[in-house]
Amino acid sequence: MAAPVMVLAAEVGIPPLLMALVVGNGAQAGAMSPLSPNGIVGNSVLADMGITNMAMTMWINMLIVHIIIAALAYFLFGGLKLWKNRNDANSPAKVLAGIHVEPFTTAQKATLVAIAILIIAVIGFGLDIGFTAFLLGSILILAKCGDEKAAFKAMPWGAIMLVTGVTVMVKLMQNIGGMDLFAEIMSNFSTPLTANLVVGFFAGIVSAYASTSGVIMPAFLPMAPLLLEKIGASPDMLPGLITTIVVAGHLTDMSPLSTTGAVFISGAPDSIDSKPLFKGMIIWGISMAFVGAVICWVLYSILRIV
User: What residue spans define the domains of the chain?
Assistant: First the structure.
C-alpha cells in the first residue's frame, strides 16, 4: 500500500508528509477490525483475559479517532491548499484524470470474490478466520490466480516471529510476577482520574518505536485490570482503559521508528527527499503520544463514551 501511494504523491504533486499521514491514519482506522492482523492479536489477548465483547467497540473507537487525526493532518499539511487549487491545470485532480487505469484481470476479480466470501463467512457465520483464509488462499493457488512462491516470500515473517515471541515473553512475565511489577510501577504515577492519561502516554511513547500488535497490546492489555486494582479504581473503568491502550498505541504508529511509519519511508521514491519526510513523521509520531493520551483521557475517562 505505502509504496504506490508515495509514488502517486510524487507524480501528482501531493506533499509526501500529507499523503503518508492521511493514508496511514486511514489504514490504522481499520486496524482493529476482527479480520485484520492487529484486531486478531488484540482480541486474542482479551479472550485470554476472559473479555470477548469488546471487538466492535475497539474497532469503532479506532475508526472515529483516526478519522479525526487524519482530518487534522489534512488541514495542517496542505490539504486545504490542494482543495483550493483543484481546478488548476496541474492540480492533482487533473493529473489523476489523465492516468490510464488498467481493468481488473480475472485473477484479481477472483481474489476480490474470495475476500468478500471471507468477510461474509467470518462475520455472518462465525467461521474461524485463519482456517477460512487458508482454505480460500489454497483454492486461489490451485486456480493459478497467484504465485505461491512469491506470496510466501512476501509474508512478513519477521513480524510474525515478533508477535509470537512477545506473546511467549508476556506469558512468561505473567508466570513469574512481572505483570504485577509492571502494574505496580504504573500505579505510582496513576490515580483513578489520571489512569487513562498516564497509560495512554506510556502506550503511545513505547509504540512510537515498537510494534503495537507485537509489543503494546500483548504487554499492556493484561496489565490493565491489575493496575485498576492497585489504584483502587472501579472495575467499570476497564473498557475505557483497554480502549485507551489500543487507540493511543496505534496513534503513534506513523513514527518512522515504528512499523507503519517505516513502511511509508521505505516506499518513498527517489524523487522524494526522505530527510524532511523522516523528520516530519518522527515529530508527528512523538507528538501523538501526548495528543493521543489527552484525546483518550477526555473520551474514555471524562466523557466515558465506551
Answer: 2-101+156-302, 104-155
